[in-house]
Design a protein that fits this description.
five-stranded mixed beta sheet; 12 helices; 5 strands; 2 domains
Length: 293
């Protein structure tokens, strides 16, 4: 499949909608060797979105609004940017432009490329648009911003690399989730209920704790989510106090590595059936990172 710019102009406006859509469907199913320049009416855009916009990345409302304004004001121009369809007959790039055409109620013209290998979706426009959240959304997951964060934190916690704060390629985050941590998504439920820690981070810590003791992790998670801080859960009260103190001293910001260390300290005290003291929650970057016990 070639992406050369030897284009065949196919203006939908000069054809009936049925004929034009039939032509586009044929290109999607039987990919031409070269790109095409196609004018999409709002009706054609809507139909293509209905038929071929499957497991795409999340739509971007601000971009749709911006594109729709430009189209409505006659400011949209044909550039080298392409609308892309994969060899599995999926729209892989261009949903925001097509949605903008529907919103504006005006046609727009674009280069279109067909037959791109579906497995290449994770590198298309990656530096500009696709991040781990997008990749997970395309793969069919929900709440992907929090899930991507949870996957990253899980990887760091279980590989002992939290202090280094590594970054991961978007495609690697998907691999980790699917192959290493397929049972991670349900932990977002508790993570969302924790008020003093970002959802993804909270979910990842509970997931890591469950690998030590699933029953204790469930009890700890319930107490953390409901704000239970008495009895065996006194360490959670000390954690909340420490996080609040750090926020006051640092304009509301808490270093994520520090937060992670303090969460682990609370878990370890809980597991040891100790209430702990304020001294147990003294930790700064540069010190040995606590091991989940």
């Amino acid at each position: 499949m070639s992406t050369e710019n030897t284009a065949t102009v196919t203006p939908i406006g000069n054809e009936s909608e049925d004929v034009a859509l039939a032509k586009i469907r044929r290109y999607i199913k039987e990919s031409p060797q070269n790109s095409r320049v196609i004018t999409f009416t709002p009706e054609a855009s809507a139909q293509i979105l209905t038929e071929f916009n499957i497991d795409n990345r999340p739509k971007k409302p601000s971009k749709i609004a911006e594109y729709a304004r430009d189209m409505a004001n006659g400011l949209w121009a044909v550039t080298g940017d392409t609308i892309k369809f994969s060899n599995k007959m999926r729209l892989r790039d261009g949903q925001n432009r097509l949605m903008a055409s529907v919103r504006a109620g005006v046609p727009f013209t674009s280069h279109v490329v067909f037959g791109i290998p579906d497995e290449a979706f994770d590198v298309m426009d990656r530096g500009r648009n696709r991040d781990p959240s997008d990749i997970l959304a395309i793969a069919g997951f929900a709440d992907t911003s929090n899930l991507a964060a949870a996957t990253r934190w899980t990887r760091m916690l279980l590989t002992g690399t939290v202090p280094q704060r590594p970054t991961f390629e978007p495609k690697d985050v998907l691999v980790y989730l699917q192959q290493n941590y397929p049972d991670l998504p349900p932990f977002l439920t508790h993570g969302r209920k924790v008020s003093d820690t970002p959802t993804g981070m909270a979910a990842a810590h509970l997931y890591a704790f469950s690998k030590i003791d699933p029953v204790d992790a469930a009890l700890f998670g319930d107490a953390w989510a409901t704000g239970t801080m008495n009895g065996k859960f006194v360490p959670l009260g000390r954690l909340a106090t420490k996080l609040a103190d750090i926020k006051k001293q640092s304009s509301g910001r808490i270093h994520d590595v520090v937060r992670s260390a303090l969460i682990i300290k609370a878990w370890n005290l809980y597991r040891a059936n100790r209430k702990g003291s304020s001294k147990d929650f003294e930790w700064t970057t540069g010190k040995d990172f606590p091991v989940i016990g």
